[in-house]
Amino acid sequence: MNRDAFLARLASRLADPVPPGVAHPPKPPPATVPRVDYPPDERSLEERFAAELEAIRGRVATLDELPGLLDELDVRTAVMTDERIPLPDAIERLPLERAAEADAGFTTARAACAVTGSVVIADEFRLASLLPRVHVVAVPRDRLVETPGDILRNLPSLFADGLPSGFAFASGPSRSADIAGEVVYGVHGPLAVIALFF
Amino acid sequence: MTLRERERAALSGDGQLQVALRRSTDAMSTRWAATRAELADPDGLREAARSLRSAAIARLPELLAQLADRVQATGAHVFFAADAEEATSYIAGVADGKKLAVKSKSMVTEEIGLNAALAAVGVEAIETDLGEWVQQLDHEPPAHILGPAMHKTRADWVRVLAREGYEGGDDPDAMTAFARRTLRRKFLEADLGITGVNLAIAETGTVMMVTNEGNGRLTAGTPPVHVAVMGMERVVASWAEADLLLALLSRAGAGVSIGTYVNFITGPRTGCEMHLVIVDNGRSNILGSPSQEALNCIRCGACLNVCPAYRQIGGHAYGDVYSGPIGAVIVPLLRDGDPELSHASSLCGACWKACPVAIPLHELLLQGRADHAGSERAIWRAWAAAWSSPRAFALSGAPARLRPPQMLVPPPFRDWARGRELPHREGATFRARWARGEVLE
Lengths: 198, 441
Known about the structure:
- The structure holds 2 protein chains of 2 kinds.
- By secondary structure, chain A is of the alpha/beta class.
- Chain A is 23% helix and 23% strand.
- Chain A starts with a helix and ends with a strand.
- By secondary structure, chain B is of the alpha/beta class.
- In chain B, the strands form 2 sheets. Chain B has a 6-stranded parallel β-sheet, with helices on both faces. A 4-stranded mixed β-sheet of chain B has the order 8-5-6-9, sandwiched between helices.
- The interface between A and B is large, with 78 and 109 residues.
- Strand 9 of chain A pairs antiparallel with strand 9 of chain B.
Protein backbone atom coordinates (compact mmCIF):
# COMPACT_ATOMS: atom_id res chain seq x y z
CA MET A 1 0.00 0.00 0.00
CA ASN A 2 1.35 3.43 -0.64
CA ARG A 3 2.15 5.73 2.20
CA ASP A 4 -0.52 8.31 1.41
CA ALA A 5 -3.37 5.81 1.34
CA PHE A 6 -2.09 4.17 4.54
CA LEU A 7 -1.89 7.45 6.43
CA ALA A 8 -5.19 8.69 4.98
CA ARG A 9 -6.95 5.65 6.40
CA LEU A 10 -5.55 6.39 9.85
CA ALA A 11 -6.57 10.03 9.59
CA SER A 12 -10.10 9.08 8.58
CA ARG A 13 -10.38 6.66 11.52
CA LEU A 14 -9.22 9.42 13.86
CA ALA A 15 -11.45 12.11 12.34
CA ASP A 16 -14.60 11.08 14.16
CA PRO A 17 -13.59 8.96 17.15
CA VAL A 18 -16.08 7.17 19.38
CA PRO A 19 -15.63 8.18 23.05
CA PRO A 20 -13.37 5.79 24.97
CA GLY A 21 -15.08 2.85 26.63
CA VAL A 22 -13.32 3.44 29.95
CA ALA A 23 -14.47 5.15 33.12
CA HIS A 24 -11.40 7.37 33.50
CA PRO A 25 -9.90 8.36 30.17
CA PRO A 26 -6.21 9.37 30.15
CA LYS A 27 -5.33 12.91 31.11
CA PRO A 28 -3.76 15.27 28.56
CA PRO A 29 0.01 14.69 28.32
CA PRO A 30 2.36 16.70 30.53
CA ALA A 31 4.03 19.71 28.87
CA THR A 32 7.42 18.03 29.21
CA VAL A 33 8.16 14.33 29.49
CA PRO A 34 9.05 13.63 33.14
CA ARG A 35 12.59 12.46 33.84
CA VAL A 36 13.05 8.94 35.14
CA ASP A 37 14.38 9.85 38.58
CA TYR A 38 15.86 7.58 41.20
CA PRO A 39 15.81 8.24 44.96
CA PRO A 40 18.76 10.28 46.25
CA ASP A 41 21.85 8.19 46.85
CA GLU A 42 24.92 9.20 48.85
CA ARG A 43 27.34 6.97 47.01
CA SER A 44 29.52 8.34 44.24
CA LEU A 45 28.58 7.56 40.64
CA GLU A 46 31.57 5.24 40.39
CA GLU A 47 30.48 3.29 43.46
CA ARG A 48 26.93 3.01 42.19
CA PHE A 49 28.07 1.90 38.74
CA ALA A 50 30.25 -0.79 40.29
CA ALA A 51 27.45 -2.00 42.59
CA GLU A 52 24.86 -2.12 39.82
CA LEU A 53 27.21 -3.86 37.38
CA GLU A 54 28.02 -6.48 40.03
CA ALA A 55 24.30 -6.99 40.69
CA ILE A 56 23.93 -8.13 37.08
CA ARG A 57 27.06 -10.33 37.15
CA GLY A 58 29.56 -7.93 35.67
CA ARG A 59 32.42 -6.34 37.60
CA VAL A 60 34.68 -3.34 37.85
CA ALA A 61 38.40 -4.08 38.05
CA THR A 62 41.70 -2.22 38.17
CA LEU A 63 44.50 -2.57 35.66
CA ASP A 64 46.47 -4.65 38.17
CA GLU A 65 43.60 -7.08 38.70
CA LEU A 66 42.93 -7.58 35.00
CA PRO A 67 45.59 -10.20 34.07
CA GLY A 68 44.50 -12.45 36.95
CA LEU A 69 40.82 -12.16 36.05
CA LEU A 70 41.47 -12.95 32.40
CA ASP A 71 43.58 -15.92 33.42
CA GLU A 72 40.73 -17.27 35.57
CA LEU A 73 38.43 -16.97 32.56
CA ASP A 74 40.97 -18.85 30.47
CA VAL A 75 41.42 -15.99 28.01
CA ARG A 76 44.25 -16.75 25.55
CA THR A 77 43.40 -14.47 22.62
CA ALA A 78 41.83 -11.05 22.24
CA VAL A 79 40.79 -8.43 19.73
CA MET A 80 41.24 -4.74 20.57
CA THR A 81 39.41 -1.78 19.09
CA ASP A 82 41.85 0.70 20.66
CA GLU A 83 44.82 0.79 23.01
CA ARG A 84 43.11 2.33 26.03
CA ILE A 85 43.70 -0.77 28.14
CA PRO A 86 47.08 -2.46 27.61
CA LEU A 87 46.82 -6.09 26.60
CA PRO A 88 48.28 -8.38 29.31
CA ASP A 89 51.48 -10.06 28.10
CA ALA A 90 50.23 -13.63 28.14
CA ILE A 91 47.38 -12.91 25.72
CA GLU A 92 47.72 -13.16 21.97
CA ARG A 93 46.30 -10.30 19.93
CA LEU A 94 44.10 -11.22 16.95
CA PRO A 95 43.13 -8.84 14.15
CA LEU A 96 39.66 -7.29 14.53
CA GLU A 97 38.04 -9.32 11.78
CA ARG A 98 38.72 -12.46 13.81
CA ALA A 99 36.51 -11.29 16.71
CA ALA A 100 34.32 -14.39 16.37
CA GLU A 101 37.17 -16.68 17.42
CA ALA A 102 38.79 -14.45 20.06
CA ASP A 103 38.32 -15.21 23.75
CA ALA A 104 38.08 -11.54 24.74
CA GLY A 105 37.21 -8.22 23.13
CA PHE A 106 38.70 -4.94 24.41
CA THR A 107 36.66 -1.80 23.72
CA THR A 108 36.16 1.71 25.05
CA ALA A 109 32.71 2.95 26.07
CA ARG A 110 31.38 6.25 24.79
CA ALA A 111 29.63 6.82 28.10
CA ALA A 112 28.17 4.90 31.03
CA CYS A 113 25.27 5.17 33.46
CA ALA A 114 25.52 4.42 37.15
CA VAL A 115 21.97 3.37 38.07
CA THR A 116 21.86 0.54 35.54
CA GLY A 117 25.56 -0.41 35.25
CA SER A 118 25.33 0.26 31.50
CA VAL A 119 28.06 1.15 29.03
CA VAL A 120 27.29 2.87 25.74
CA ILE A 121 28.97 1.06 22.87
CA ALA A 122 29.30 2.70 19.48
CA ASP A 123 28.58 0.58 16.46
CA GLU A 124 32.16 0.22 15.26
CA PHE A 125 32.90 -1.72 18.47
CA ARG A 126 29.80 -3.89 18.15
CA LEU A 127 31.37 -7.18 17.17
CA ALA A 128 34.36 -6.87 19.51
CA SER A 129 31.98 -6.24 22.41
CA LEU A 130 29.59 -9.02 21.46
CA LEU A 131 31.24 -12.03 19.83
CA PRO A 132 34.02 -12.97 22.31
CA ARG A 133 33.25 -14.74 25.60
CA VAL A 134 34.69 -11.88 27.63
CA HIS A 135 34.14 -8.16 27.12
CA VAL A 136 36.73 -5.84 28.67
CA VAL A 137 35.51 -2.27 28.48
CA ALA A 138 37.26 0.99 29.36
CA VAL A 139 34.86 3.47 30.95
CA PRO A 140 35.69 7.19 30.80
CA ARG A 141 35.13 8.73 34.26
CA ASP A 142 34.17 12.06 32.72
CA ARG A 143 31.43 10.36 30.72
CA LEU A 144 29.86 8.52 33.62
CA VAL A 145 26.36 9.88 34.26
CA GLU A 146 23.58 8.86 36.64
CA THR A 147 20.69 7.61 34.49
CA PRO A 148 20.08 6.40 30.93
CA GLY A 149 17.94 9.52 30.49
CA ASP A 150 20.99 11.71 31.08
CA ILE A 151 22.34 10.23 27.85
CA LEU A 152 19.17 9.65 25.81
CA ARG A 153 17.81 13.12 26.48
CA ASN A 154 21.10 14.77 25.60
CA LEU A 155 22.43 12.82 22.63
CA PRO A 156 24.10 15.71 20.76
CA SER A 157 26.63 15.91 23.62
CA LEU A 158 27.60 12.33 22.86
CA PHE A 159 27.36 12.41 19.08
CA ALA A 160 28.22 15.93 18.01
CA ASP A 161 28.25 15.01 14.31
CA GLY A 162 24.78 13.47 14.35
CA LEU A 163 23.56 10.03 15.33
CA PRO A 164 25.61 7.06 14.13
CA SER A 165 23.81 4.23 12.31
CA GLY A 166 23.92 2.27 15.52
CA PHE A 167 24.82 2.41 19.18
CA ALA A 168 23.76 0.33 22.14
CA PHE A 169 23.47 0.29 25.88
CA ALA A 170 25.06 -2.91 27.13
CA SER A 171 24.38 -3.82 30.76
CA GLY A 172 26.31 -6.78 32.08
CA PRO A 173 26.75 -10.13 30.33
CA SER A 174 24.29 -11.57 27.83
CA ARG A 175 21.62 -13.54 29.67
CA SER A 176 18.38 -15.47 29.31
CA ALA A 177 15.79 -17.08 31.55
CA ASP A 178 14.11 -18.96 28.73
CA ILE A 179 15.15 -22.44 29.88
CA ALA A 180 12.61 -23.28 32.59
CA GLY A 181 13.11 -19.91 34.24
CA GLU A 182 16.79 -20.53 35.08
CA VAL A 183 19.04 -17.55 34.46
CA VAL A 184 21.98 -18.42 32.21
CA TYR A 185 24.79 -16.19 30.94
CA GLY A 186 26.66 -15.92 27.69
CA VAL A 187 23.79 -16.83 25.38
CA HIS A 188 24.87 -14.96 22.25
CA GLY A 189 27.04 -12.23 23.73
CA PRO A 190 29.75 -12.31 26.44
CA LEU A 191 29.36 -14.34 29.60
CA ALA A 192 31.67 -12.02 31.51
CA VAL A 193 31.97 -8.23 31.43
CA ILE A 194 34.87 -6.42 33.09
CA ALA A 195 34.86 -2.63 33.28
CA LEU A 196 37.91 -0.44 34.03
CA PHE A 197 37.68 3.29 34.72
CA PHE A 198 40.14 5.67 33.13
CA MET B 1 -11.60 -25.71 18.55
CA THR B 2 -13.52 -23.22 20.63
CA LEU B 3 -11.99 -21.29 23.49
CA ARG B 4 -13.84 -23.55 25.92
CA GLU B 5 -12.36 -26.65 24.34
CA ARG B 6 -8.85 -25.20 24.35
CA GLU B 7 -9.24 -24.23 28.00
CA ARG B 8 -10.37 -27.74 28.88
CA ALA B 9 -7.42 -29.19 27.00
CA ALA B 10 -5.01 -26.92 28.90
CA LEU B 11 -6.55 -27.78 32.26
CA SER B 12 -6.87 -31.52 31.77
CA GLY B 13 -3.13 -32.22 31.50
CA ASP B 14 -0.85 -33.57 34.22
CA GLY B 15 -0.54 -30.17 35.87
CA GLN B 16 3.02 -29.57 34.56
CA LEU B 17 1.75 -26.65 32.49
CA GLN B 18 0.34 -24.91 35.53
CA VAL B 19 3.51 -25.58 37.55
CA ALA B 20 5.68 -24.09 34.81
CA LEU B 21 3.36 -21.12 34.32
CA ARG B 22 3.19 -20.34 38.01
CA ARG B 23 6.96 -20.49 38.41
CA SER B 24 7.73 -18.23 35.46
CA THR B 25 4.93 -15.74 35.87
CA ASP B 26 5.51 -15.40 39.61
CA ALA B 27 9.20 -14.75 39.03
CA MET B 28 8.47 -12.09 36.41
CA SER B 29 5.79 -10.25 38.33
CA THR B 30 7.86 -10.29 41.52
CA ARG B 31 10.80 -8.76 39.66
CA TRP B 32 8.53 -6.11 38.12
CA ALA B 33 7.37 -5.11 41.61
CA ALA B 34 10.96 -5.02 42.90
CA THR B 35 12.41 -2.99 40.03
CA ARG B 36 9.44 -0.62 40.09
CA ALA B 37 10.43 0.24 43.66
CA GLU B 38 13.84 1.48 42.44
CA LEU B 39 12.20 4.52 40.91
CA ALA B 40 11.49 7.73 42.79
CA ASP B 41 7.92 8.12 41.50
CA PRO B 42 6.77 4.99 39.65
CA ASP B 43 3.06 5.84 39.78
CA GLY B 44 3.62 9.34 38.41
CA LEU B 45 5.74 7.93 35.58
CA ARG B 46 3.08 5.36 34.80
CA GLU B 47 0.35 7.97 34.53
CA ALA B 48 2.58 10.19 32.39
CA ALA B 49 3.35 7.24 30.16
CA ARG B 50 -0.36 6.57 29.77
CA SER B 51 -1.05 10.17 28.72
CA LEU B 52 1.94 10.33 26.40
CA ARG B 53 1.10 7.05 24.68
CA SER B 54 -2.50 8.19 24.20
CA ALA B 55 -1.31 11.49 22.74
CA ALA B 56 1.05 9.71 20.35
CA ILE B 57 -1.70 7.39 19.12
CA ALA B 58 -3.98 10.37 18.54
CA ARG B 59 -1.22 11.89 16.33
CA LEU B 60 -0.36 8.64 14.59
CA PRO B 61 -0.56 9.84 10.94
CA GLU B 62 1.68 12.81 11.67
CA LEU B 63 4.24 10.84 13.70
CA LEU B 64 4.44 8.01 11.18
CA ALA B 65 4.95 10.50 8.34
CA GLN B 66 7.76 12.16 10.30
CA LEU B 67 9.31 8.78 11.14
CA ALA B 68 9.20 7.66 7.51
CA ASP B 69 10.77 10.92 6.30
CA ARG B 70 13.60 10.70 8.81
CA VAL B 71 14.25 7.01 8.16
CA GLN B 72 14.36 7.61 4.40
CA ALA B 73 16.74 10.51 4.92
CA THR B 74 19.23 8.04 6.46
CA GLY B 75 19.18 6.01 3.26
CA ALA B 76 16.92 3.23 4.50
CA HIS B 77 13.74 2.06 2.75
CA VAL B 78 10.31 2.42 4.33
CA PHE B 79 7.32 0.30 3.39
CA PHE B 80 3.78 0.81 4.67
CA ALA B 81 1.90 -2.50 4.75
CA ALA B 82 -1.89 -2.42 5.07
CA ASP B 83 -2.09 -6.10 5.93
CA ALA B 84 -0.10 -9.28 6.51
CA GLU B 85 -0.10 -10.15 2.82
CA GLU B 86 1.46 -6.83 1.79
CA ALA B 87 4.07 -7.03 4.55
CA THR B 88 5.13 -10.59 3.83
CA SER B 89 5.28 -10.13 0.06
CA TYR B 90 7.44 -7.03 0.44
CA ILE B 91 9.85 -8.82 2.78
CA ALA B 92 9.84 -11.92 0.57
CA GLY B 93 10.78 -9.59 -2.29
CA VAL B 94 13.73 -8.23 -0.31
CA ALA B 95 14.77 -11.77 0.60
CA ASP B 96 14.30 -13.24 -2.85
CA GLY B 97 17.43 -14.95 -4.14
CA LYS B 98 18.92 -15.17 -0.66
CA LYS B 99 19.28 -18.36 1.34
CA LEU B 100 19.36 -17.77 5.05
CA ALA B 101 17.66 -15.24 7.30
CA VAL B 102 18.26 -14.89 11.05
CA LYS B 103 15.48 -13.44 13.15
CA SER B 104 15.33 -11.98 16.61
CA LYS B 105 12.08 -12.47 18.45
CA SER B 106 9.28 -10.35 17.08
CA MET B 107 5.58 -10.81 17.77
CA VAL B 108 4.51 -8.89 14.68
CA THR B 109 6.42 -11.25 12.37
CA GLU B 110 4.62 -14.15 14.08
CA GLU B 111 1.35 -12.30 13.57
CA ILE B 112 1.89 -11.86 9.82
CA GLY B 113 3.21 -15.40 9.33
CA LEU B 114 6.53 -14.24 7.94
CA ASN B 115 8.50 -17.47 8.30
CA ALA B 116 6.09 -19.37 6.06
CA ALA B 117 6.17 -16.60 3.45
CA LEU B 118 9.97 -16.72 3.42
CA ALA B 119 9.99 -20.49 3.13
CA ALA B 120 7.73 -20.14 0.09
CA VAL B 121 10.46 -18.20 -1.72
CA GLY B 122 13.15 -20.64 -0.61
CA VAL B 123 14.58 -18.59 2.25
CA GLU B 124 15.20 -20.40 5.52
CA ALA B 125 14.38 -18.21 8.53
CA ILE B 126 15.99 -19.17 11.83
CA GLU B 127 14.79 -17.77 15.14
CA THR B 128 17.70 -16.78 17.40
CA ASP B 129 16.00 -15.94 20.69
CA LEU B 130 16.62 -19.05 22.78
CA GLY B 131 12.96 -19.59 23.69
CA GLU B 132 11.69 -18.70 20.24
CA TRP B 133 14.26 -21.02 18.62
CA VAL B 134 13.15 -24.00 20.69
CA GLN B 135 9.53 -23.18 19.84
CA GLN B 136 10.42 -23.05 16.16
CA LEU B 137 12.23 -26.40 16.39
CA ASP B 138 9.19 -27.84 18.18
CA HIS B 139 6.78 -26.42 15.55
CA GLU B 140 4.84 -24.59 18.24
CA PRO B 141 3.86 -20.92 18.37
CA PRO B 142 5.19 -18.77 21.24
CA ALA B 143 3.23 -19.17 24.47
CA HIS B 144 4.11 -15.80 26.00
CA ILE B 145 5.04 -12.39 24.60
CA LEU B 146 8.34 -12.36 26.43
CA GLY B 147 9.03 -15.95 27.42
CA PRO B 148 7.91 -17.88 24.35
CA ALA B 149 8.85 -21.27 25.81
CA MET B 150 7.98 -20.59 29.44
CA HIS B 151 5.64 -23.58 29.53
CA LYS B 152 8.45 -26.01 28.65
CA THR B 153 10.30 -28.06 31.25
CA ARG B 154 14.04 -28.81 31.06
CA ALA B 155 13.19 -32.31 29.80
CA ASP B 156 11.17 -30.70 26.98
CA TRP B 157 14.23 -28.65 26.05
CA VAL B 158 16.48 -31.70 25.93
CA ARG B 159 13.96 -33.52 23.74
CA VAL B 160 13.69 -30.63 21.26
CA LEU B 161 17.40 -29.74 21.12
CA ALA B 162 18.26 -33.38 20.44
CA ARG B 163 16.79 -32.88 16.97
CA GLU B 164 19.59 -30.39 16.30
CA GLY B 165 22.20 -32.85 17.53
CA TYR B 166 22.36 -31.96 21.23
CA GLU B 167 23.60 -34.93 23.25
CA GLY B 168 24.04 -33.44 26.71
CA GLY B 169 21.90 -33.50 29.84
CA ASP B 170 19.34 -31.06 31.20
CA ASP B 171 21.88 -28.55 32.57
CA PRO B 172 20.73 -25.11 31.31
CA ASP B 173 24.33 -23.92 30.90
CA ALA B 174 25.19 -26.87 28.67
CA MET B 175 22.09 -26.32 26.56
CA THR B 176 22.90 -22.61 26.31
CA ALA B 177 26.45 -23.34 25.17
CA PHE B 178 25.07 -25.68 22.52
CA ALA B 179 22.64 -23.02 21.30
CA ARG B 180 25.43 -20.44 21.22
CA ARG B 181 27.65 -22.64 19.05
CA THR B 182 24.83 -23.66 16.72
CA LEU B 183 23.32 -20.22 16.23
CA ARG B 184 26.66 -18.38 16.04
CA ARG B 185 27.34 -20.06 12.70
CA LYS B 186 23.93 -18.95 11.46
CA PHE B 187 24.59 -15.32 12.35
CA LEU B 188 27.85 -15.33 10.45
CA GLU B 189 26.39 -17.08 7.39
CA ALA B 190 23.07 -15.22 7.16
CA ASP B 191 22.23 -13.02 4.18
CA LEU B 192 19.45 -11.21 5.96
CA GLY B 193 18.59 -10.18 9.53
CA ILE B 194 14.98 -9.62 10.55
CA THR B 195 14.09 -7.92 13.81
CA GLY B 196 11.06 -6.44 15.52
CA VAL B 197 10.93 -2.93 16.88
CA ASN B 198 10.17 -2.02 20.48
CA LEU B 199 9.83 1.69 19.78
CA ALA B 200 10.48 3.95 16.81
CA ILE B 201 11.56 7.50 17.58
CA ALA B 202 10.00 9.87 15.07
CA GLU B 203 12.22 12.90 15.68
CA THR B 204 15.36 11.18 14.40
CA GLY B 205 14.02 8.12 12.56
CA THR B 206 15.61 5.75 15.08
CA VAL B 207 14.52 2.21 15.81
CA MET B 208 14.91 0.93 19.38
CA MET B 209 15.17 -2.79 19.98
CA VAL B 210 15.76 -4.51 23.33
CA THR B 211 17.08 -8.03 23.90
CA ASN B 212 18.71 -9.70 26.87
CA GLU B 213 20.59 -12.33 24.93
CA GLY B 214 22.34 -10.12 22.40
CA ASN B 215 20.66 -11.79 19.44
CA GLY B 216 18.94 -8.58 18.41
CA ARG B 217 22.27 -6.83 18.01
CA LEU B 218 23.74 -9.71 16.07
CA THR B 219 20.67 -10.04 13.86
CA ALA B 220 20.52 -6.36 12.98
CA GLY B 221 24.26 -5.86 12.83
CA THR B 222 25.84 -8.91 11.20
CA PRO B 223 24.14 -9.74 7.87
CA PRO B 224 24.35 -7.18 5.03
CA VAL B 225 20.59 -6.57 4.95
CA HIS B 226 18.46 -5.62 7.96
CA VAL B 227 14.66 -5.68 7.85
CA ALA B 228 12.92 -4.16 10.87
CA VAL B 229 9.21 -4.87 11.19
CA MET B 230 6.99 -2.77 13.45
CA GLY B 231 3.34 -2.55 14.37
CA MET B 232 2.33 0.96 13.38
CA GLU B 233 1.44 1.92 16.96
CA ARG B 234 5.03 1.64 18.24
CA VAL B 235 6.02 5.15 17.30
CA VAL B 236 6.95 7.80 19.88
CA ALA B 237 7.60 11.48 19.26
CA SER B 238 10.86 12.01 21.12
CA TRP B 239 13.91 10.49 22.80
CA ALA B 240 12.57 11.68 26.15
CA GLU B 241 9.48 9.51 25.64
CA ALA B 242 11.67 6.61 24.59
CA ASP B 243 13.69 7.02 27.80
CA LEU B 244 10.54 6.93 29.94
CA LEU B 245 9.05 3.93 28.15
CA LEU B 246 12.35 2.04 28.16
CA ALA B 247 12.51 2.37 31.96
CA LEU B 248 8.97 0.97 32.26
CA LEU B 249 9.27 -1.66 29.52
CA SER B 250 12.46 -3.21 30.92
CA ARG B 251 11.00 -3.47 34.40
CA ALA B 252 7.50 -4.63 33.51
CA GLY B 253 8.71 -7.05 30.84
CA ALA B 254 11.88 -8.79 31.94
CA GLY B 255 11.92 -7.41 35.48
CA VAL B 256 15.28 -5.70 35.03
CA SER B 257 16.31 -2.07 35.45
CA ILE B 258 17.29 -2.01 31.80
CA GLY B 259 17.31 -4.69 29.11
CA THR B 260 20.83 -6.11 28.70
CA TYR B 261 21.19 -4.79 25.16
CA VAL B 262 19.24 -1.73 24.11
CA ASN B 263 20.01 -1.05 20.46
CA PHE B 264 19.36 2.22 18.71
CA ILE B 265 19.52 2.00 14.93
CA THR B 266 19.36 5.08 12.76
CA GLY B 267 19.69 3.98 9.15
CA PRO B 268 21.79 1.33 7.42
CA ARG B 269 25.43 0.56 8.28
CA THR B 270 27.94 1.69 5.70
CA GLY B 271 27.63 -0.44 2.59
CA CYS B 272 24.57 -2.23 3.94
CA GLU B 273 20.84 -2.12 3.36
CA MET B 274 18.00 -1.44 5.75
CA HIS B 275 14.22 -1.67 5.42
CA LEU B 276 11.59 -0.53 7.88
CA VAL B 277 8.20 -2.21 7.40
CA ILE B 278 5.31 -0.45 9.16
CA VAL B 279 2.35 -2.81 9.59
CA ASP B 280 -1.33 -1.97 10.05
CA ASN B 281 -2.96 -5.43 9.67
CA GLY B 282 -6.17 -4.50 11.50
CA ARG B 283 -4.70 -2.02 13.97
CA SER B 284 -6.52 0.84 12.28
CA ASN B 285 -9.83 -0.85 13.22
CA ILE B 286 -8.95 -0.06 16.83
CA LEU B 287 -8.12 3.55 16.03
CA GLY B 288 -11.12 5.79 16.68
CA SER B 289 -12.97 2.91 18.40
CA PRO B 290 -13.93 2.89 22.11
CA SER B 291 -10.95 0.56 22.61
CA GLN B 292 -8.32 2.89 21.09
CA GLU B 293 -6.26 2.83 24.28
CA ALA B 294 -5.34 -0.80 23.52
CA LEU B 295 -2.94 0.64 20.92
CA ASN B 296 -0.91 2.18 23.76
CA CYS B 297 0.44 -1.31 24.53
CA ILE B 298 4.23 -1.70 24.45
CA ARG B 299 4.06 -5.54 24.54
CA CYS B 300 5.88 -6.15 27.80
CA GLY B 301 3.77 -9.15 28.82
CA ALA B 302 3.19 -7.96 32.41
CA CYS B 303 -0.58 -8.41 32.13
CA LEU B 304 -0.14 -12.06 31.19
CA ASN B 305 1.95 -12.77 34.28
CA VAL B 306 -0.69 -11.60 36.73
CA CYS B 307 -3.81 -12.81 34.93
CA PRO B 308 -5.59 -15.62 36.85
CA ALA B 309 -6.97 -16.97 33.57
CA TYR B 310 -3.61 -16.93 31.72
CA ARG B 311 -1.84 -18.49 34.69
CA GLN B 312 -4.12 -21.51 34.48
CA ILE B 313 -4.61 -22.01 30.75
CA GLY B 314 -1.35 -20.61 29.29
CA GLY B 315 -0.83 -18.80 26.01
CA HIS B 316 -1.80 -21.48 23.52
CA ALA B 317 -5.40 -21.72 24.79
CA TYR B 318 -5.97 -18.23 23.41
CA GLY B 319 -5.46 -19.58 19.90
CA ASP B 320 -3.49 -16.56 18.66
CA VAL B 321 0.05 -15.18 18.90
CA TYR B 322 -1.29 -12.57 21.32
CA SER B 323 -2.50 -14.09 24.56
CA GLY B 324 -3.43 -12.99 28.06
CA PRO B 325 -5.53 -9.91 28.77
CA ILE B 326 -4.01 -7.81 25.97
CA GLY B 327 -4.57 -10.64 23.49
CA ALA B 328 -8.14 -11.07 24.67
CA VAL B 329 -8.69 -7.36 23.99
CA ILE B 330 -6.93 -6.91 20.66
CA VAL B 331 -7.39 -10.21 18.83
CA PRO B 332 -11.17 -9.78 18.30
CA LEU B 333 -10.55 -6.19 17.18
CA LEU B 334 -7.60 -6.91 14.87
CA ARG B 335 -9.14 -9.71 12.91
CA ASP B 336 -12.84 -9.80 13.59
CA GLY B 337 -11.50 -12.90 15.27
CA ASP B 338 -12.90 -14.86 18.10
CA PRO B 339 -15.13 -12.50 20.07
CA GLU B 340 -15.25 -15.22 22.73
CA LEU B 341 -11.70 -14.28 23.80
CA SER B 342 -13.02 -11.30 25.76
CA HIS B 343 -14.63 -13.87 28.06
CA ALA B 344 -11.25 -15.41 28.96
CA SER B 345 -11.06 -13.16 31.98
CA SER B 346 -12.44 -12.77 35.48
CA LEU B 347 -12.38 -8.96 35.12
CA CYS B 348 -10.38 -8.73 38.34
CA GLY B 349 -8.31 -5.82 37.05
CA ALA B 350 -4.88 -7.27 37.97
CA CYS B 351 -3.84 -6.68 34.34
CA TRP B 352 -4.56 -2.99 34.64
CA LYS B 353 -2.58 -2.74 37.89
CA ALA B 354 0.40 -4.48 36.28
CA CYS B 355 0.32 -2.53 33.02
CA PRO B 356 3.28 -0.10 32.86
CA VAL B 357 1.24 2.30 30.73
CA ALA B 358 -1.93 1.85 32.82
CA ILE B 359 -4.24 0.54 30.11
CA PRO B 360 -7.58 -0.25 31.81
CA LEU B 361 -7.63 -3.70 30.24
CA HIS B 362 -10.49 -4.98 32.38
CA GLU B 363 -12.70 -2.19 31.06
CA LEU B 364 -11.63 -2.89 27.49
CA LEU B 365 -12.48 -6.56 28.03
CA LEU B 366 -15.98 -5.48 29.04
CA GLN B 367 -16.11 -3.26 25.97
CA GLY B 368 -15.15 -6.29 23.90
CA ARG B 369 -18.04 -8.24 25.37
CA ALA B 370 -20.38 -5.34 24.62
CA ASP B 371 -19.08 -5.15 21.03
CA HIS B 372 -20.23 -8.69 20.39
CA ALA B 373 -23.18 -9.02 22.76
CA GLY B 374 -25.61 -9.95 19.93
CA SER B 375 -28.45 -12.18 21.15
CA GLU B 376 -27.27 -11.80 24.71
CA ARG B 377 -27.95 -8.11 24.48
CA ALA B 378 -31.53 -8.87 23.33
CA ILE B 379 -32.04 -11.17 26.31
CA TRP B 380 -30.89 -8.55 28.80
CA ARG B 381 -33.00 -5.90 27.07
CA ALA B 382 -36.07 -8.14 27.37
CA TRP B 383 -35.24 -8.73 31.01
CA ALA B 384 -34.92 -4.98 31.64
CA ALA B 385 -38.27 -4.35 29.92
CA ALA B 386 -39.99 -7.13 31.88
CA TRP B 387 -38.79 -5.96 35.24
CA SER B 388 -39.89 -2.42 34.41
CA SER B 389 -43.49 -3.62 34.50
CA PRO B 390 -45.01 -4.59 37.90
CA ARG B 391 -47.16 -7.33 36.44
CA ALA B 392 -44.36 -8.93 34.43
CA PHE B 393 -42.03 -8.63 37.43
CA ALA B 394 -44.52 -10.51 39.61
CA LEU B 395 -44.95 -13.20 36.98
CA SER B 396 -41.21 -13.66 36.49
CA GLY B 397 -40.80 -14.25 40.22
CA ALA B 398 -43.18 -17.16 40.24
CA PRO B 399 -40.77 -19.95 39.16
CA ALA B 400 -38.35 -18.96 41.91
CA ARG B 401 -40.38 -21.05 44.37
CA LEU B 402 -39.26 -24.08 42.50
CA ARG B 403 -35.75 -25.50 42.78
CA PRO B 404 -35.06 -26.79 39.31
CA PRO B 405 -32.20 -29.30 39.28
CA GLN B 406 -29.13 -28.39 37.20
CA MET B 407 -29.98 -31.00 34.59
CA LEU B 408 -33.23 -29.17 33.76
CA VAL B 409 -31.40 -25.95 32.85
CA PRO B 410 -31.83 -25.52 29.09
CA PRO B 411 -28.60 -26.11 27.09
CA PRO B 412 -27.69 -22.54 26.15
CA PHE B 413 -27.46 -21.70 29.87
CA ARG B 414 -26.03 -24.98 31.09
CA ASP B 415 -22.38 -23.88 30.91
CA TRP B 416 -23.26 -20.71 32.72
CA ALA B 417 -25.21 -22.55 35.40
CA ARG B 418 -22.42 -25.07 36.00
CA GLY B 419 -20.85 -24.31 39.35
CA ARG B 420 -23.55 -21.83 40.26
CA GLU B 421 -26.42 -22.21 42.68
CA LEU B 422 -29.69 -21.43 40.96
CA PRO B 423 -31.67 -18.75 42.76
CA HIS B 424 -34.58 -19.85 44.87
CA ARG B 425 -36.91 -18.16 47.33
CA GLU B 426 -37.71 -18.97 50.94
CA GLY B 427 -41.29 -18.10 51.92
CA ALA B 428 -43.51 -15.40 50.44
CA THR B 429 -42.35 -12.58 48.19
CA PHE B 430 -42.06 -9.00 49.40
CA ARG B 431 -44.99 -8.06 47.16
CA ALA B 432 -47.24 -10.71 48.66
CA ARG B 433 -46.27 -9.74 52.20
CA TRP B 434 -46.80 -6.06 51.37
CA ALA B 435 -50.26 -6.84 49.99
CA ARG B 436 -51.12 -8.69 53.22
CA GLY B 437 -49.96 -5.70 55.25
CA GLU B 438 -47.20 -7.74 56.96
CA VAL B 439 -44.33 -5.49 55.99
CA LEU B 440 -45.27 -2.49 58.10
CA GLU B 441 -45.59 -4.46 61.35
